[in-house]
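Q: Here's a chain of 326 amino acids. Please give me its 3D structure as C-alpha cells.
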Amino acid sequence: MTTKPFLLWKLPHVARKQVLDYMDPMELIFLTFMSKHIKYSAFGLLEADKFSWTVMNNLKVIEVISKDRTNRKFKMNFQITQVPPNNKTIKLKNRKIPFKASKKTFNLKSEKNEEDNISILDDLTEHLLVIFKIAEYGLHSEFNLFDSPIFKNTKRFSELQLNNQDLTVEHTRTLLETMEIDFLTLYLTRPKIKKGPEDFQLKHNIMKLGNIDWLKFSSVLNMKCEELILGRMNHITQKDFSDFVRVWSEGGFENLTSFYVQVPHVWEQRDIDMSYLWRNEVYESFKSMDLTIVKATRNGDEKTIQRNDGKRAEILFKNFFKFKVL
C-alpha cells in the first residue's frame, strides 16, 4: 500500500494553521522558509516574551525568548555566522542561503561583506516579525540601523544600546523624543551638531548618555526620567547645579530617583589639592531655597536635604555630582 505525501501547504488556511499550532517551534520556523502559504498561516502563532538583536562587527544574532505549549520558557538563537559547505539552503526573499539548524539554534551563512550580512539580518528580521507575537524588544548595535526593518517596525524597546556611532540630529530626536524606550544607553555615540549644545527631550525611564557636550543643561532641568546617568558635561556651570537642586526643592522631577554627571575637565585640572572649590557656590545657593540640610559630612562631600513635603535627597559632590532621592 502506497501512502500519499501530506501536502501541508495545500490545506485550507484554517486547517493549516491548526496543524502548525501543534508543531515544534523550530520545525515550524523552518517550514515558513519553505512556503509563503505556511509563513502567513503562521502569523502570530509563536509568542515571544523578548525579541532582541545584537549587531556587532563579528556577531549578528537575534535572540528570542519564547514559550512552548506547556508554557515553559525556552530560548532560540538566529545567527549569521560561518556554516559548513554543502549544507541545505533556505530561501530568504530572493536569495538562497546555506543554513544549519539544531533544536535551539538556526545559523545562516555569513558573507565577507558586512553590508551583505546586515542585509541578511534585515530580511531575517522581516521574516521572523511575521511569525512572532512579541511582548518586548531589545537592541545592542554598533551599526546605524535607523533605515532598517528593526527601527521601521519597532517603536518601543525595553532595552536599547548604541555603540560607537555618529548620529544625525534627526535620528537623535527620533531616539530621544519619538520612540518609547525603557532603558537607553549611548556608548561613544553622539549626534553631529555644528552650532553647539541643543535642547532634547529626556523622557525615557533610564538613560545613560555618556559624555554630552551636545546637550543643553536646560534639557536636564525638564527631564522626565527615573534615572539619568551622564558622563562629562564641559559646559555645565555652578548655576546649573544650583538650578537642578532648586527645581527638585520646588517639587520638580516627579519621577526621579537618581542623577549623575561629571564636572568639567578644566575644573579638575585646576583642583590640585582636591578641595572641590566649585561646590562652595552651589552649597551657598541652598540658603535661598525652600529646603533644609538635615545631614552633612564635615568634609562637605555629602549632604542630605529635605524639602517642605518631607521628601529627602542625598547629594554626593566631588569631581562628580550624584543626586539620589531617598
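Q: Can you summarize the key feature?
A: The chain has a mean pLDDT of 88.
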